[in-house]
Amino acid sequence: MPLSANLRHLEDGALQLQGELAVAELELDLRDDLIQAEEPLRYDLEVELMPDGLLVHGGLHLPLKCLCVRCLKPFAYPLTLDAWTVLLPLAGDEQVSVSGDCVDLTPFLREDILLEFPQHPLCEAECRGLPVKPVGKTKKPGDAGLIEGKASAWTALDKLKLNN
Are 103 and 96 in contact, with CB atoms under 8 Å apart? Predict the structure, then answer.
């Protein structure tokens, strides 16, 4: 069931909305294997009827499971919007749709949540990525220009002496 606000209930004053919204209801349509939302969205919102629309403000919290883009280690990312605010117009060209006496708030939650998703999730800012292991034979100090015992094409170029 989507998160909605009843306009008739708002005529008496502000409405407090607290609870959880299942991830399926948010319809996030995640196509990124690095970010997964499996736990419900927790919300604590206040909805007020204004002369020109609805003012919705409060906090949103959605725990995400991410994979680090550098080391592929899984980590938790707490997506939190503490001071989330949206003004939904009830008249004019950009007015929100009203079904019965209710305004669906879910699309507006979804939009701002998606905008807060990490672009490149990192387990920590200093993550160095996957460990690099040497491939093939390692060079010895006297083997400059040699690749696996063979002279490289750069060896001849290193011997050139160009005068300007």
Answer: yes
Q: In 3-state terms, what secondary structure has residue 32?
A: coil
In 3D space, the residue among 60, 41, 44, 48 whose CA is nearest the CA of residue 5 turns out to be 48
Is residue 122 included in any domain, yes or no? no
Q: Has residue 126 been placed in a domain?
A: no
Q: Tell me: the pLDDT tens digits for 107-140?
A: 999 999 999 998 889 999 888 888 777 776 655 5
SS3 content of the chain, % helix, strand, coil (to 5): 15, 40, 45
Residue 3: name the closest of 84, 16, 14 by CA. 16
Predicted structure pTM score: 0.72
DSSP state of 155: H
What's the total number of domains in the chain?
Answer: 1
